[in-house]
Amino acid sequence: MQLSVANVGLSFDGAPVLKDVSFQLPGGESALLVGPSGSGKSTLLNVICGLQSADAGKVTLGDQTIAGESGISQADEVRRSSMGIVFQTLRLVSALTLRANLLLAQKLQTGAYDRALIETTLASLDIAHRADAKPYVLSQGEAQRAAIARALVVKPKLLIADEPTSALDGANAKRVAELLLGLAKDAGASLLVATHDDRLTPYLAKTLTLTGGRIA
Length: 216
Fold this sequence. Notes:
The chain is of the alpha/beta class. It has helices at residues 41-48, 75-82, 98-110, 115-124, 140-152, 170-187; strands at residues 3-12, 15-25, 30-34, 56-61, 64-67, 83-86, 158-162, 190-194, 206-211, 214-215. The relative contact order is 0.21. The strands form two sheets. A six-stranded mixed sheet has the order 6-7-8-3-9-10, with helices on both faces. The chain has one domain (28-39, 76-215): P-loop containing nucleotide triphosphate hydrolases (Rossmann fold, 3-Layer(aba) Sandwich). A hairpin with a 2-residue loop joins strand 9 and strand 10.
């Protein structure tokens, strides 16, 4: 399922943040989105996810429009049915255990449970021993891996990760990169990772550099 970003522009208080951004990411392909702090990486991800409206341009996933002339009326459905998103902050229900959070995520997005996938994902991320822990007792690194698990267990067609390895050591960064790529390959999903982490460069085939609000 191809992601297409065409001529996307966005300004805040009259200051342009994104300027005519265009690229395509075919189904099954992966790319890094890199650029200095303040270059608009997180803003671009928010537009792609339909969490923020653009001033101009169009974003589609397959034949579904996330952002465009008709607004973002399909964004909620596209996110629910086709996206897994790894945010920089942990977005889990604090009253539920990690395992219960993953089950809830699956039920809300797919309408069904896949307990085997949850257990496999937790083990792959080396947090199976924290499955019955509440989110607020997780360490920073464990919380980041929990956020990644949350995105993986919904079997996305487009997997988007915003700084997924910033709090991880070298071994866990490698494990996460390989797991993200493995899941994307198994599902035929596209993978887009926004990062400052140079350790990820060898793993993803394509690099998109956002600078001055444009893709270089």
